[in-house]
Specification:
single chain; 102 residues; mainly alpha; 434 Repressor (Amino-terminal Domain); 2 domains
């Protein structure tokens, strides 16, 4: 970028290149911020329990909001990974959380 710009078009081209670079950097920063809060799947029960308690919800409240049984929510919170994905997504959704796979 230390080169001397000769025309207005050169300046516009350089500005466009800088803008593209900044947009790319902003996108990468956004991805890093999202990844910062990711948890391993083995912690999903702990994450759900903490989110429920942080929101001052009982298991019964979560049953109502997620339409998932108390037994199933208990299994999830205790780390039982034999729960179906739709039920896990319902519980996570009721808490405002997402399930990421990647």
């Amino acid at each position: 970028m230390a080169e001397k710009l000769k025309t207005v078009q050169d300046a516009r081209d350089s500005l466009e290149a800088v803008q593209g670079y900044l947009l790319e950097q902003a996108s990468q920063l956004s991805q890093y911020r999202q990844q910062r809060d990711l948890q391993p799947f083995s912690n999903v029960g702990e994450v759900i329990r903490e989110a429920r308690k942080r929101q001052k919800l009982t298991i019964e409240d979560l049953v109502l909001y997620s339409n998932v049984s108390k037994v199933t929510i208990g299994k999830i919170e205790n780390g039982d990974t034999s729960v179906t994905v739709p039920k896990l997504q319902a519980v996570l959704g009721a808490l405002g959380l997402s399930l990421w796979v990647g």
